[in-house]
Automatic annotation (TrEMBL):
It catalyses: a monocarboxylic acid amide + H2O = a monocarboxylate + NH4(+). This is amidase. GO terms for molecular function: amidase activity. Its EC number is 3.5.1.4. Residues 77-550 form the Amidase domain. The keyword Coiled coil applies. Gene3D superfamilies: Amidase signature (AS) domain (3.90.1300.10). Residues 695-709 have a biased composition (Low complexity).
Amino acid sequence: MTNTTYEQLGDLKRRSILGAIPAKWRLQNPIPQADELRDVTGAYIQQFLTPQEIEITETDAAGITEQTSSGSWTAVEVAEAFCHRAALAHQLVNCLHEVFFDAAIEDAKRLDAYFAEHKKPIGPLHGLPISLKDQFHVKGVETTMGYIGWIGTFQGKKGDPRRATFESELVKELRNLGAVLYCKTSVPATLMAGETVNNIISYTWNPKNRLLSSGGSSGGEGALIALKGSPGGFGTDIGGSIRIPAVFNGVFGIRPSSGRMPYEGAANSIDGQSLILSVVGPLATTARSLTLLFKAVLSQQPWYHDPLVLELPWRTDVEERTRALIRKSADGSPSLAFAIMRHDGMVRPHPPIARAVEIVEQTLKRLGHKVIEWKPPAHQIGIDIFGRVCVADGGADIAHHLGLSGEPKSLQCIVGEGIPHMSALEIAALNVEKRQYQKLYMDYWNSTAEVTGTGRPVDGVICPCAPHAAVIPHKYAHVGYTAFVNLLDYTSVVFPVTQADKKVDVPELKDDFLSEVDKIVHEQYDPDAYDGAPAGLQIVGRRLEEEKMLTLADYISQEVSLHSDTPEGSVGADDAQSGAAKNAAVKDRKCQYCHQAFTSSSLGRHLDQFLFKKKPDGVHDVEEIRRIRSGITRRQARTSSGKRDTPERIIGKGQLDPYASDSGAKPRDGVRMMFNTPTWHATGVINDIPNPSQSHDVSSTSRFSTSQTRVPKPLPDYASRGASANNPDTMRALELALREVLDNIKAATSRMRPRLSPFDFDIQSQTFPSLCLQLLPPPPSLFATSPFPSPSSFPLQPPGVEHVEIIRQALRAKIDQWQSDQLSTDSMSNSQSGRPSIGLDANMIARSAQQHEDISLRHLELAFKHWASLPSDTRRDAWQLEITRAFAREMEKRKSLDDQLARVQQEANQLRAQVERLGSCQWPREFALFPPDTLPLPRDVARDLDTKESKISPDSSRWDYDNVVAKWKRVVMHDKSMGRVGVGHSSPVLDDYGTADSKRVGDDSGSMSRSRILQPPAGMSPPAPSPIQTGGPSASSSQQTSPYLPHDATRSPNAGPQAKRPRLMNGHHSAAAPEGSNSPSISQTAGTSKPWNPQQSLTVSNLTGPSGPTPPPSSSGP
């Protein structure tokens, strides 16, 4: 055939498609050019429809089936509405290959007759119009799949009796479910392209921006559904062919794992290759519609009709379990974890996509979910495998079908020409590579269980589907964001997020690129051309997790749409300030009053400030601004303190009792949460303790529900000894003691964070001699005159076979220690968070440890075989080289530790200054006079503390509460005796001491510095300490300084409470000093006291001992 012939055949087919559209539905006036009218969705296409047609077609698939199954809408009126809108959509963007509206109306009439007779729907999709990608065979309808050579044939075979009589398995099942089939949508010839273009309908355009592509290869489906010409349809996906059109057109789509949906009887490209299977999946306007379609097809038990479908019905238990995790998260208990992949290591996404990632990430964090960075095995490896799979046959299949008509291959096709096909051995080797990469990725996914905090690996990965929002024709250069999912056979669901906005998504200036393709894609970004294009993402789950991913996609998309829409610019315009364009925003907007230049979002904030000014400036029209900005949703900044009166702030003024329940409120189980309210956990100020001098009706004033009413308990002996239970000084001392204990425990346990790997080096990159040096200790006699190795140390000469078993034991010892640390941390996190241990964490840790051991021992075996194969001279030289490398590594490590120490010291100094500034408004006065000092415990002691006694018990021998309370009682009494305004002296007992403190500081003389306010009276100043105490030249390097006070070497010893107060936990002290004694002899004894020994008993003893300023004796007694 000549080129003219294929062009004529294509033109004839194109005209026949238009001819199948009824004359009453054909557009009479020319369509505006794309540069004049980009978006033809919404109001533009609605002008050609009746109000009833708009109502029907604007309803999603789930809503339509509710109406048709109840008899509210007839199948005929629904079918006619969608046939009309589909006809309009094709005339606007070229999205249809086959039109069979008349047959659809007849099918709808039969459905209505069935409903009228039986008073029930024929199936869950009763009367629902469904569109199909032009791969599925429908009786009486042609299938071309974009090939000119298939016109008038059955998949290119002339005279085949199956032409116009055969139906694909999916088509049969949809008919059984009550669906109405009415059109087939456009695809690119070959199917192997990210844009939909062929010689029949030319190019399928994006209805949201007709300068851009609708994607491929299910591009017709994506465009038709975006124009609401179909409530849902089915496409196929081998490298992104469902997800790319879905994300380009702003609709939902799912790529399920192979074996869930029936593919039997559908046409395909490169049919027969099984390295990466093409899969069938639905596209729709909502996530719940995807679920409806997916669930309905599975209800037909397709595994009895397609040999490749797994016998795996819809798992309602998985769906409900996922919804339970969502509900649990909504209640404030983090139970879901997600990973964010910002780029795939090869190509960075354009600003609109980067902003979409930022919007979803912030939404997940706002909802309280754990979000981690996704850093998987190199995607370049996977994409290389994918590329070789696509050309395994050398392009023979595509060349054959193109050759039937002589038509040329489109430039967008990713399959090259003139490539030799692979042999059977090469294909087998490629399959092994794919399997190994899948295992590598699986292991990485499993490893995330160590960092999610849920006891499970991440529940889903959020990432782009493409580096761009839609694509400029002929510019699709990278399919890596979707193809890796096909290679791994994972589940992926696409959901819309936002739209490109040229005013927000400005180009970034950069000269560092991940690859040459990255540079090309970056240079192709044109903010004006992409303006208005949908920008969505995909959530990727593991194999066969369709129920879970559909549920999560529905949840996330709803949260994004509810909380990210703003009238300014595109969705989430405010978030763009923290997104990709935050450093390059162009000030292209001007205030109409003062004519200052602003960005699109900062202009809104500029105008908002005049709404709250007490006096107008005479330039800005406040009333006009209020009218314009009245509908704007203003979100509080993440760092905002929320300057609103809260229950804790108001109680001191006598305006509100936070413990009094609202009489009209419905009781709830559990604690009443006060959102945006500063609590003592966050601020360090305990200001909502009930007044013990006031009697409360528990039934009406409890913060808990009636089912969880707190019954007042008598104070323990250590709290009430020698004093009334209502003594405010005792209550205050109890509070301070509790704060001190909790601070110490928090400081101790916060250090227990084991590594994610048993090794602090990449074990698979080590040679056998380097493993000896990394894992074995040096010989004990290394620095002796005549050194010699021990049986367990590394040798002085090149290692041999005798060291293999020693290294093997060292490897296992490290892995066992790592496993033990992980189990201890897991047990600690469960006990601290109040979650019961369910055993999954331990199993996951055990499997991870086993994987580490298998990999390590296998590498050890291979490394030794290589080492043994080397000549002795080569081994000697290599041994010397490894020793030199080990020395260099230690030098680098020391340099790194020195730098880290310098940074930590600098941060510590800054934190001391910050704590000093915050102390006056957040600390109790007593803590300012005698600063508490947490004591981080060694790892083994902290672990023992948590595992053996995780609860604070008054009866514990580990804690000497009498001395703790007595110490703070003396502090409270001294503060009271000096006439200071504080909780110990206030009336009523629980006045808002945080407010009182702030007032007290503000009411003092202006000339009095804050440092003076925090000073104790002269009589309380400790005597001049010895050089050992003041940190002089002879001071011990291990001596610690309280982090609660700024470090000032020039400060006088008598200038305030410089010396550190006695530690809460200590293992050894010298003899206790008498109360109130601060004689030089006692202080000198303290300076030379024996350092704390973690191996000794952990008891709170001698808290009035001489390790710091002694609290004053109480005049009234505890």
